[in-house]
Amino acid sequence: MTPENTSANQLPPPQPDTSVLEIWGQSTLEGHVRISGAKNAALAIMAGTLLCPQPCRLHNVPSLLDAARMGEVLTSLGVKIHQSGDALDIDARHITQFQAPYELVNRLRASFFIIGPLLARVGVAQVPLPGGCAIGARPVDFHVRGLQAMGAEVHIKHGMVHAAIPGSRQRLQGAKIYLDYPSVGATETLMMAATLAEGETIIENAAQEPEVEDLANFCRAMGARIRGAGTKTLIVSGVPQLHGVEYTVIPDRIEAGTLLVAGAITRSNLQLSPVIPEHLGAVISKLQTMGVHIERPTPNFLQLHASDALQATDIETLPYPGFPTDMQAQFMALLSLSNGSSAIAETVFENRLRHVAELKRMGADIRIKGNIAIVTGVPQLSGAPVTATDLRASAALVLAGLAAEGKTLLRGLHHLDRGYDNLEGKLKQIGAQMKRQSEDSSDRAGLVQTDVAAT
Ligand code: UD1
User: Fold this and answer.
1) Do domains 12-36+251-446 and 39-163+170-248 have the same CATH topology?
2) CATH of domain 39-163+170-248
3) Quick one: 19 exposed, middle or buried, by C-beta within 10 A (0-12, 13-18, 19+)?
4) Ligand 1 test: best mutation among 184, 212, 325, most atoms within 8 Å of CB?
5) Are 142 and 186 in contact (CB under 8 A)?
């Protein structure tokens, strides 16, 4: 995010890091890690401030490239943002634009979620189609169909989604919406739009992710009437206007899960807080099945104990409360070093196994059959030059590097910076050996080798 006490719109746009992370593996980690605010909750809540004609203050906003980018998108609409530490003051009183620029939305898929609150607040929204990304095509048809059901006129022209409340009507209309799949983004877009609609909106087969519930709690704090958040049926009774609020984002369950795997893969003792262990049910259960010892001494604290031999286990990614797709790559790194064979089925995104090739470069034994990866544990991984293909793949490669013998050179760090708040710094504090280098000063020979292997 932006430095303290400066306004987001006065800063140069965040530059993706083109450097390389050197990781020297096989250090034991030890100590406590503070978990940051949840990326996916913060991004949705930032979009949600568009609903509000008064200033809002958000606390526990993680310091991430994605959050800075969402700030840029809001700023482009006339919103004023001021950052102070992990607090963001967002003033959406004067929305001066209803069209989001392609260059910004293209870099942050979640910024498409502004379409719901922007339309509900000002009656018109033009947001570019975000397009596919490294993990799949990621269409937005549920968002569009839901807004149409609420009376919006929506058409797509020249890559731009044009949405408007037709005629002299000022508000969207409550509607009964069934989602073919419990999409997180579609649930959030439609829930936000429904807060200011006329009448009642029922969203069936809604996403139950904790971040959806956090967004609902934020909206409720602003005066929205929402029931059923965190269940499959969301009921929103529209109100004419919302009011400003101060709100604290929940801890990031995926960051916490990634650190649990960091502890498990390096056979270390770690403590994490603040966490909401209920949000990590599937992750903790899988780790325990593998033989990892995890305790919860106090409600928002997790303690992980070093465990030696870990056992293979099968994983299927599913919507919450199932096993999160955002933890699949990290578990693949861990299962690569466990006893026996595991089947990992990725069912949420169609193209989220690209890290397999990189883990194999480090000596992992993985075969892919369709959307299933068969991982056979090996006694040791070896450090190698590797490239992150998406956000969670970047975390998986850091984890593999921590466990591997020798040096790993990780490229594609902009993926890591998109979604982790100083993961490197946090790992170094507990004993990890790693260093960010400019490409020029790093091991050129190794990098050239990666390029050749990738073609
Ligand atoms: C969110 C999370 C992401 C997480 C994902 C699934 C944010 C900012 N990102 O992404 O980290 O991996 O949930 O837990 O919160 N789909 C459609 N049509 C639509 C919308 C979605 O077919 O209109 C499909 C997608 O292609 C995908 C599946 O539904 O196969 C789930 O996607 P969705 O839950 O919408 O993910 P996001 O909200 O984009």
Assistant:
1) yes
2) 3.65.10.10
3) middle
4) 184
5) yes
Q: Name which of 252, 260, 251, 259 is nearest 285 in CA terms.
A: 260
202: left (phi over 0), alpha (psi -120 to 50) or beta: beta
Environment class of residue 381 by beta-carbon count within 10 Å: exposed (0-12), middle (13-18) or buried (19+)?
A: buried
Q: What kind of fold does domain 12-36+251-446 have according to CATH? A: UDP-n-acetylglucosamine1-carboxyvinyl-transferase; Chain (3.65.10)
Q: Give pairs for 93-98: CB < 8 Å, separation 24+.
A: 93/53, 93/54, 93/55, 95/50, 95/121, 95/122, 98/122, 98/124, 98/125, 98/126
Q: Which of 127, 327, 330, 348 is the pocket-test mutation for ligand 1 (most atoms within 8 Å of CB)?
A: 348
451 contacts: CB under 8 Å, gap ≥ 6: none
User: Ligand 1 atom 12: the closest Cα is on which residue?
Assistant: 326
**Is the backbone peptide bond immediately before 321 cis, with ω within 30 degrees of 0?**
yes
The set of protein residues with a Cβ atom below 6 angstroms from ligand 1 is 40, 43, 110, 136, 138-143, 181, 183-186, 207, 211, 325-326, 348-349
Query: How far is residue 4's CA from residue 179's CA, in Å, rounded to a whole number?
Result: 41
Is residue 171 within 8 Å of 95, Cβ to Cβ?
Answer: no
> Catalytic residue numbers?
133
For 16-56, write each residue's pLDDT tens digit: 557 999 999 999 999 999 999 999 999 999 999 999 999 99
The pLDDT tens digits for 155-170 are 999 989 999 999 888 8
What is the C-alpha separation between 200 and 238, in angstroms, rounded?
Answer: 6
Q: Residue 358 Cα, ligand 1 centroid: separation in angstroms? A: 24
Q: Cα–Cα distance between 39 and 276 in angstroms, integer? A: 15
The residue contributing the CA closest to ligand 1 atom 31 is 183
Please state whether the peptide bond connecting residue 274 to the residue before it is cis, i.e. omega within 30 degrees of 0.
yes
**DSSP three-state, residue 369:** strand
Q: Are the C-beta atoms of residues 32 and 433 closer than 8 Å to each other?
A: no
Task: Give 84 Cα–ligand 1 centroid separation in angstroms.
Answer: 30
Phi, psi dihedral angles at 244 (to 5 degrees): -65, 155
Closest CA to 403 of 367, 419, 427: 427
**The tokens of 74 are what?**
């809001």
Task: Give me the residue spans of the domains in the chain.
Answer: 12-36+251-446, 39-163+170-248
Among the ranges given (120-134, 144-158, 388-402), the one the predictor scored with the smallest mean pLDDT? 120-134
Ramachandran quadrant class, 85 (left: phi over 0; alpha: psi -120 to 50; beta: rest): left
Ligand 1 centroid distance, CA of 141 (Å): 11
